[in-house]
Structure formats: C-alpha cells, structure tokens
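ok posting inputs for the citrulline job
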Amino acid sequence: MFSKAIVRTPCKAMINGLTSANLGKPDYLIAIKQHKDYIQALEECGLEVTCLESDEAFPDSTFVEDVALMTPHCAIITNPGADTRTKEIESIKPIIESFYSKIEEISAPGNVEAGDIMMVGSHFYIGLSARTNQQGAEQMIEILEKHHMTGSIVTLTEVLHLKTGLGYLEDGNLLACGEFLTKPEFQKYQVLAVDSDEAYAANSVWINGMVLTPKGFPKTKILIESMGYKVREVDVSEFQKIDGGLSCLSLRF
Ligand code: CIR
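and the output
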C-alpha cells in the first residue's frame, strides 16, 4: 500500500519537452487542468500529495518519476540519461530527504531514469533503454541488494521507458504490450495484453487497489475492470504529446 505521492506542477516550458510522439505541442492551460485532476485521482486513492512548484529551467520536470526510485527501505536518486534532465535531481533531492532517512544515488557513468524500473514486491525490473545504461542498472541492483531487495535487467528496443509498455497491477497481473508480451521473464505473471492501438494505456498504475488509467482507451479499461479492479480514468492527453505516461507524473511511496 502507498500513503504518499510527490508531483510537480508542469512548467510553461513543457511545450518544449522531449518527444518523439508527433502529436503536436501540448496546450499548457489544459495540461494544468489535467494535472489538477491527476492530483485529485491520487487523493481518491488515499494518498497525501505533495505538489512541488513548477521549474521553468526543466521542460520535462513534471515527470518526477524518472528522477528517483522510492522503495520501502530507501530512496535512490537516479542520474537521468537525457542531458536536459540530468540536473532535475538537484531540486528533488531535498524533498526526498524530508521523507527518507536512507538515500542512495546513481552516479556517472551510470545513467538511470526510474520510468525504466518496475516494482514487483521486493524485486525491481530495470529496463536498458536510451536513458538507462548497463552501469546504471548494475549500480541500481547493487543498491537494492544492499537494502535486501533484488533487481534484474530487461532489454527493450521499441519504447522510451520500460513502463511505457508495462504496468504491474499487483496480484500477479501484468499489463503489457508490444515487445513485452513475449518476454520470458514475464510469463510467470498473468499477462493482460493491451492492443497495439491502445499501447499508451499499458502505462496504467495500481494504487491501493484502484487502477488509474489514461482516458480514451476503452478496451484497456474493460480489460482491467474484467480483472476485478476499480478503474479511475485520468485525461493526460497533453502529457502524452511529450511522451509522458500516467506513472511518470508522480512518485508514489
Ligand atoms: C522525456 O522524454 O523524458 C519526457 N518528455 C517524458 C518522460 C516520461 N517519463 C516516463 O515515461 N517515465
């Protein structure tokens, strides 16, 4: 169960966030409205939400998930692989220090963005992507083991981050699409196949028994509901335009 979340208000510069989506520029005012509803959805899941001020220096800084991994035993500050995002860690660090006494860090030449990390109990799958490299993944595994957890590496080629195409819904249920449908390491889970035309919805998030899913993906919503979960849709269309999914918008712990 989670009790808290950290989010960061999108900055105006988000319209220049990194993207390969080809969906046009985000509308800032709509994004602000959507972000407020996202916070409301987190609160509906029982979380106490800390909302950080926007940071105009970093267009992608609303995607707080990438800069830290929050575990039950420690928090790990990452070292984002995107040059324009590396320094996002400086402003998140003091915030995380206010919640955690044990803090670890990934250091160069290691790179990790925590959108590449999926937690399943005390095990963490770490995707090797354009943003997370082998050294970063190895450092992460060493830190996890030091704190009595485990990690393993997953290769990926089609998507930005591991959780772009995967969402663990607890109880052994794993939403997956594309290259992740057939990966041997995930076959021990009940793989819930997300249709390729709804691939964006594979990044849905389980929080305390409820599943937050992006609005506008009806087949995936029905699929999740068919497994007995209560689903809360959140419209995040403006974040999708800069490759951001639901999970990326918060740190949950
Ligand atoms: C980026 O490319 O870094 C942002 N535009 C989107 C980050 C999305 N984060 C995530 O999937 N965890």
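notes: The longest strand covers residues 123-128. Residues 4-252 form a domain with the L-arginine/glycine Amidinotransferase; Chain A fold (CATH 3.75.10.10).
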